[in-house]
């Protein structure tokens, strides 16, 4: 089955699934999982399917087309109130360097213990938790992709990784410390090691005002080593448009023994208005020259037109998606609707390294006809100056998404 057949088929499936999703939201057909003695098994399915096109590119535009951005299948099992495990595979694309549709890889295989409140311990293969935007589920983010600086600063948050992570979660805070190795399913060098840390919470929580502050740090103390090369890193990311794998922002390979990144995060919610942003600096410990440092930030705003605005979730230390009653036009219920805007800046120019500088302006319109379904339309204007491949282009992308867990 080609992607060009899959995408229209998914659109029809979303329309078909909407009544079932609505019923689940109303409690009429809630799925509680399958009981196996004292354990409960819950299926997991998650898909994001994009169609997009870039235009007015100079010197040219990235290719447009259709992509299965994420397509994950698996399950989670609760052995008790304290123990759970998950096994999830990914059959979709992972941006610029991941496998495409039809190439299966392990995304998550981990166990979690939460019997010592407020602590939670997880171990195995899973995606590390780092930065505010990455702590949000990809099903809830305001835009299709993270801001470029978040991807660069959270260099290890790029798929399931072997590791262990300790979390402490309260009503108004989340804190974590993790130790991670290589990615699973990519054939990465197994020598890589990194420490992660995050502390975030609500410093203000009133009836119509919530203020979030946080800080993040990543320390890669053993860098990957490809065959025939010395250990090092390459900082590179696509321009927040991953229909095709072009990346114009890149440092190239930097011979290095380590890399450190850290920064601040903030968010404010008041009524239908939501504001958030993050700033990060990246330092590379080179072995063959002057140590460079890179940086960037983003700022974004959203307004909920229909439904209940985003609410802060202590489990993630971030805001979830808008919610609304089930889609029922006869009763004037049209689901949740949100508009958003973002400016993103990333600078990979330092010392004699010229990886380019990227600015992206974006606007989005997101619609949730049910909690488990979303359609997201995004426009962006991207500009990369300097580096080996300066570019400028505009793009429009539509994502259809479903989630069952």
Oligomer: single chain
Q: What is the CATH architecture assignment?
A: Beta Barrel
Count of separate structural domains: 1
CATH class: Mainly Beta
Low-confidence stretches: 1-31, 95-102
Largest pleated sheet: 16 strands, antiparallel, barrel
* Strand order, sheet with most strands: 2-3-4-5-6-7-8-9-10-12-13-14-17-18-19-20
Radius of gyration: 21 Å
User: Helix-strand pattern, N to C?
Assistant: HEEEEEEHHEEEEEEEEEEEEEE
User: What is the number of strand segments?
Assistant: 20
User: pLDDT average, as an integer?
Assistant: 87
Topology:
Elements: H1 3-25, E1 34-36, E2 39-58, E3 65-78, E4 83-90, E5 105-113, E6 119-126, H2 132-135, H3 148-153, E7 161-169, E8 173-183, E9 193-206, E10 209-222, E11 232-237, E12 249-270, E13 273-286, E14 293-306, E15 312-313, E16 318-319, E17 336-350, E18 353-370, E19 373-385, E20 391-404
Antiparallel strand pairs: 1-2, 2-3, 2-20, 3-4, 4-5, 5-6, 6-7, 7-8, 8-9, 9-10, 10-12, 11-12, 12-13, 13-14, 14-17, 15-16, 17-18, 18-19, 19-20
Give structural notes:
This is Porin. Keywords: Signal. InterPro entries: Porin_dom_sf, Porin_O/P. The chain is mainly β and 405 residues long. The protein has one domain: Porin. It is built from three helices and 20 strands. The chain has a 16-stranded antiparallel beta barrel. The chain has a two-stranded antiparallel sheet with strand order 15-16. The protein is globular. It starts with a helix and ends with a strand.
């Amino acid at each position: 089955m080609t992607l060009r057949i899959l995408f229209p088929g998914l659109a029809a499936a979303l329309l078909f699934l909407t009544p079932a999703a609505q019923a689940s939201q109303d409690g009429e057909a809630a799925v509680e999982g399958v009981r196996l003695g004292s354990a409960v098994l819950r299926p997991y399915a998650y898909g994001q399917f994009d169609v997009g096109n870039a235009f007015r590119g100079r010197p040219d535009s990235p290719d447009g087309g259709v992509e299965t951005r994420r397509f994950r299948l698996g399950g989670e099992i609760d052995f008790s109130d304290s123990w759970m495990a998950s096994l999830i595979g990914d059959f979709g694309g992972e941006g610029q360097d991941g496998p495409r549709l039809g190439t299966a890889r392990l995304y998550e295989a981990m166990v979690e213990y939460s019997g010592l409140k407020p602590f939670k311990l997880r171990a195995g293969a899973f995606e590390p938790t780092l930065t505010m935007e990455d702590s949000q589920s990809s099903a809830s983010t305001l835009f299709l992709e993270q801001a470029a600086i978040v991807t660069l600063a959270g260099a290890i948050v790029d798929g399931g990784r072997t590791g262990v992570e300790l979390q402490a979660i309260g009503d108004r805070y989340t804190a974590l410390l993790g130790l991670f190795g290589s990615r699973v399913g990519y054939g990465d060098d197994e020598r890589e090691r990194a420490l992660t840390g995050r502390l975030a919470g609500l410093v203000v929580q009133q009836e119509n005002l919530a203020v979030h502050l946080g800080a993040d740090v990543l320390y890669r103390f053993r860098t990957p080593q490809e065959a025939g090369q010395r250990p090092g890193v390459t900082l590179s990311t696509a321009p927040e448009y991953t229909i095709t794998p072009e990346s114009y922002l890149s440092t190239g390979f930097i011979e290095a023994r380590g890399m450190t990144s850290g920064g601040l995060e903030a968010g404010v919610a008041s009524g239908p208005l939501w504001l958030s942003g993050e700033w990060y600096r990246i330092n590379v410990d080179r072995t063959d020259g002057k140590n460079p440092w890179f940086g960037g930030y983003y700022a974004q705003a959203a307004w909920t037109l229909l439904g209940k605005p985003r609410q802060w979730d202590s489990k993630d230390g971030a805001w979830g998606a808008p919610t609304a009653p089930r889609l029922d036009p006869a009763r004037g219920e049209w689901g949740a609707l949100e508009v958003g805007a973002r400016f993103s800046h990333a600078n990979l120019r330092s010392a004699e390294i010229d990886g380019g500088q990227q600015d992206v302006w974006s606007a989005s319109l997101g619609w949730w006809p049910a909690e488990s379904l979303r359609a997201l339309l995004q426009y962006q204007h991207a500009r990369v100056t300097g580096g080996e491949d300066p570019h400028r282009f505009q793009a429009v992308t539509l994502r259809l998404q479903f989630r069952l867990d």
